Amino acid sequence: AQKVTQAQTEISVVEKEDVTLDCVYETRDTTYYLFWYKQPPSGELVFLIRRNSFDEQNEISGRYSWNFQKSTSSFNFTITASQVVDSAVYFCALSEADRGGSEKLVFGKGTKLTVNP
Amino acid sequence: DSGVTQTPKHLITATGQRVTLRCSPRSGDLSVYWYQQSLDQGLQFLIQYYNGEERAKGNILERFSAQQFPDLHSELNLSSLELGDSALYFCASSGPGLAPRSSYNEQFFGPGTRLTVL
């Protein structure tokens, strides 16, 4: 069964601090995809990144970076020099391509990040 | 703008009532997914339709049903509403086909419908 665990329920930092959001996943499949989504106070889900299980390269996009480690089943997300606009709930998600072709997403419970000025 | 539209944006109703949420996928997308975001359950997958046929089912209550029409829009019907059904309901679309296991069809999320049951 698929499962995504985001152990940090809430994190509060001061602007310009670096912050890492943890994500641990469980899957029995060898082909799977991992995602991070941002949900700002307005409520929409904003896609941030997708990684497949065969690509363990870390990725950096501006102030955002992602560390994928299959050995520990983790896909952590770091925001460098955080800003108030980064305040949101962040979700990690997992998708296996099941035999029926469904790519449903399994989400973690989310981490609420508050960046204080 | 993801290209996925959901109506209505907000819905307030009473216990015991029935409501219909509507989703229009991106042009060309054949799959529609429904997700529910509630305070106690978090974000969870409800059901998926592909080109009019049910493809996968998640934790969807028997009081809930969905369908996808020939023009590919989808409706989620919630009946005998309870207080606990209050949630944000998201629709996502992907396509145009079913991806092989070596690939993945991105899901694009709509803005959601916020349902409040009083």
Characterization of this structure:
The complex is a heterodimer of chains A (117) and B (118). Chain A is 0% helix and 52% strand. By secondary structure, chain A is an all-beta fold. In chain A, a hairpin with a 4-residue loop joins β8 and β9. The termini of chain A are far apart. Chain A is globular. With 118 residues, chain B is mainly beta. Chain B is built from no helices and eleven strands. In chain B, a hairpin with a 3-residue loop joins β4 (31-38) and β5 (42-50). At the A-B interface, β6 and β11 of A face β4, β5, β9 and β10 of B.
Q: Report the average pLDDT across residues of chain A.
A: 92
Terminal-residue CA separation of chain A: 41 Å
| Overall helicity of chain A | under 10%
Instruction: Characterize the overall form of chain B.
Output: globular
What's the total number of strands of chain B?
Answer: 11
Question: What's a concise summary of this model?
Answer:
The complex is a heterodimer of chains A (117) and B (118). Chain A is mainly β. Helix content of chain A is 0%, strand content 52%.
Keywords:
heterodimer, A: 117 residues, mainly beta, 6-stranded mixed sheet, 4-stranded antiparallel sheet, 12 strands, globular, B: 118 residues, 7-stranded mixed sheet
How do the helices and strands line up, and which of them pair or pack?
The complex is a heterodimer of chains A (117) and B (118).
Chain A: E1 3-5, E2 10-14, E3 19-21, E4 24-26, E5 32-39, E6 46-52, E7 59-61, E8 64-69, E9 74-79, E10 88-96, E11 106-107, E12 111-116
Parallel strand pairs in A: 2-12
Antiparallel strand pairs in A: 1-4, 3-9, 5-6, 5-10, 7-8, 8-9, 10-11, 10-12
Chain B: E1 5-7, E2 10-13, E3 19-24, E4 31-38, E5 42-50, E6 53-57, E7 64-68, E8 74-78, E9 87-94, E10 108-109, E11 113-117
Parallel strand pairs in B: 2-11
Antiparallel strand pairs in B: 1-3, 3-8, 4-5, 4-9, 5-6, 7-8, 9-10, 9-11
